[in-house]
Amino acid sequence: MIFRAKINIRGAVQGVGFRPFIYRLAADLNLNGFVYNSSQGVFIEVEGEKQIINEFIFRIEKEKPELSFITGMEFSFLDPVGFSDFEIRKSTNDENKSTII
Question: Residue 10: how many CB atoms within 10 A of its CB?
Answer without folding.
Answer: 17
